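During the second half of the funding period, the structural biology subgroup turned its attention to how the target accommodates small molecules. The most pressing case was NDP, which had performed well in the primary screen but for which no bound structure existed. We therefore specified the complex as follows and requested a full 3D prediction, including the ligand pose.
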Amino acid sequence: MFKTEYAKRVYAELEKKNAGEKEFLQAAKEIVESIEIYIQKNPKMEQQKILERFLEPERFVQFKVVWVDDKGEFQVNRGFRVQYNSAIGPYKGGLRLHPSVNASIIKFLGLEQVLKNSLTTLPMGGGKGGSDFDPKGKSDNEIMRFCQSFMTELYRHIGPDTDVPAGDIGVGGREIGFLFGQYKRIRDEFTGVLTGKGLTYGGSLARTQATGYGLCYYAQEALKALKNTSFAGKTVVISGSGNVAIYANEKATQLGAKVVAMSDSNGYIYDKNGINLDVVKQIKEVERGRIKEYVERVKGAEYHDGCRGIWSVKCDIAMPCATQNELNLEEAKTLVANGCIAVCEGANMPTELEAAKYLIENKIIFTPAKASNAGGVATSGLEMSQNSLRLSWTFEEVDQRLHDIMVNIFNASYSAAKEYVGNPFDLLAGANIAGFKKVAEAMVAQGI
Ligand code: NDP
């Protein structure tokens, strides 16, 4: 637990003020535990109450979203935007549309985003938003009406130099298009206010691939530095079959690995010959169907009900790319018992804290989300740069910059893990410290 009175006091106060916010408190605890060592070495942090100021969001907006479904019935949802920290740049972070979305989840994601964005080395503060709207089974017109209503409130809080949202679970190119269209209509201006835009109206090449590709670039560095190995010849299991999972599969395969399992929230598929990604893309990206349809199209593949069983599939590298808390201690132990050498997080906080600690203690490579999935937001940052310059870079140019950023993020987290913790496997603490340091210094410099 905490080593200092200062951290204990701050966390106790946070628990009291945010009672019942499980995900937010979990993320905050993990961060405070690992940056304590840096705080101890820098007395200004306590003198200037930097930890308290860092944990409190600068602004939290909750609003009503009313829309009309295809049957003509009124529907009411709840919208959120947290503007967490703007010490190093305008707020930046995705929008999530999922029935589980609530204040705790938005705040946990916003807090993580502050450190993630700092790690990218680009000038971006942290924010996050979304709604408890469930896009599953909705028509394109229903999605459009929801997005228009959502933006009719959100527009007053965002702007290209203020807060730049992007996609997350349930928000892809289609939703960003509707949100952008409504912002443009209301403000009467064409600006880079959202990222993840379509290529015909200011989007960046390689943004779609960026989080999954970036995850593999980071994992590649970790495999090299910590186990002197690579993806070549490795068996990989990837949870999820959304944006992050699909492009993690694509890059891992390009780097010589064989991906044998993927999932959605109903179950997982196992294909011993290596998953045919074109089939998954057709089902998930084009038809918006269910992963179990894969076995009807690919001979020899198996489908298993229940998504958690995926962690019992034998693999060298596991990549949780679906959602938070999808991998617990027991499942981590099963992976290790089956010979897994690396758990690389693509989703946000997919590994429970006890499981992450177990992996680090057992010298299994554990790449923490805020570092290893930062490729998405980094490329969003590159989209902002291209919008400001009013020009577009080629796919290769963006991909090369993404690659360089991921290598830098790995080096920053690896160096901090060695310097502050004395354990190169503790990339979790390394990433937290490297990300926090920059934000804290900027906060000190700017006064209260
Ligand atoms: P998508 O909506 O594209 O895909 C999410 C996938 O996860 C779907 O296949 C979904 O299945 C599946 N899923 C949801 N819950 C579970 C579960 N409990 N078990 C197994 N599968 C599940 O989202 P993204 O790929 O964009 O995001 C995935 C994660 O990555 C999130 O944590 C997100 O915050 C994070 N992330 C995304 C970034 C991006 O650029 N997109 C950037 C950084 C982080 P179903 O269809 O059944 O719901």
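Two results from this model are relevant to the next phase. The mean pLDDT is 97. Residues 260 and 272 are 6 Å apart (CA to CA).
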